[in-house]
Amino acid sequence: MTIGLGRRLFAEGLGSLILTGTVVGSGILAAKLAAGNDAVALIGNTAATGAILFVLITALGPISGAHFNPAVTLVMALRRESSALSALLYVPVQVAGCVLGAWLAHAMFALPILQLSTNVREGAPQILSEGAATFALIFTILTVSRWRPHMIPAAVALTITAGYWWTASTSFANPAITVARAMTDTFAGVRPLDAPGFIAGQFAGALVAWIACAVLLPKEAKA
After folding, report:
1. What is the per-residue pLDDT across 34-79, written as a single tens digit (0 to 9) for each?
2. pTM for the whole thing?
3. Could you tell me the CATH number of the domain that includes residue 169?
4. With contact defined as beta carbons under 8 Å apart, do 76 and 23 qualify?
5. Residues 164-180 pLDDT 10s
6. What is each CA distance from 110 to 7, 103, 106, 114, 189, in whole angstroms?
7. Which residues contact 143 (CB under 8 A, 6 or more apart)?
8. Does some domain include residue 81?
9. Per-residue pLDDT reduced to its tens digit, 83-132
10. What's the CA gap between 183 and 99, in Å, rounded?
11. Whole-angstrom Cα distance, residue 164 to residue 184?
12. Alpha-carbon span 135 to 180, nearest angstrom
């Protein structure tokens, strides 16, 4: 069955909204309940993010591919698994959905809707971490989709769950959600000044993963 572009865009926007609402909202609640213990807060934030990723990819993957992420969309366009038009339209919808998700979280917790983060995440190690996290995400998507496509929701959720703990940046791995997290002065935020470095690292990591998987998984290979 062919799914129209409008439905695919709606799925991308809705998924991006729910994903970011979960990331930001769980960060707000976790920070409140943890009473200053950032490790405990991160556990709550991690669990909620991994859980919603599994659900959203399972539910919306058959409609739009469940990218929710411009870095994923870029790689799919480079692989010609997504048209240039779809990619160009997916990205602004993903960014808008992520921003709306942050605003939804603010509204649910009675915080000012419009904010800018003051959470400092600067320096080369943070940018490198985002490159590594995004590499891991794209690598997971491309390899698992080749051998075990039905495992994609679990594989992506587990990759991001692990990324929260093995990267110095806590694994944003998504330019759209980075924009939204620059607009929330809460546990999940990143200073707007630091966001461009994160985004550059994310796209670089995605491109390196695309190249690595082109070597590992040539098109003529059979599953």
Report:
1. 999 999 999 999 999 999 999 999 999 999 999 999 999 999 999 9
2. 0.95
3. 1.20.1080.10
4. no
5. 999 999 999 999 999 99
6. 32, 10, 6, 12, 17
7. 213, 216, 217
8. yes
9. 999 999 999 999 999 999 999 999 999 999 999 999 999 999 999 999 99
10. 8
11. 18
12. 21
- 59 assigned to some structural domain: yes
Rounded Cα gap, residues 26 and 156, in angstroms: 19
Taking a C-beta distance cutoff of 8 angstroms, is the pair 146, 223 a contact? Answer: yes
Mean pLDDT for the chain?
Answer: 96
How many domains would you assign to the chain? 1
Contact of 196 with 181, CB cutoff 8 Å: no
Helices marked H in the chain: 5-34, 38-64, 70-78, 84-108, 124-147, 152-166, 175-181, 195-216
Token pair for 36: 């200053």
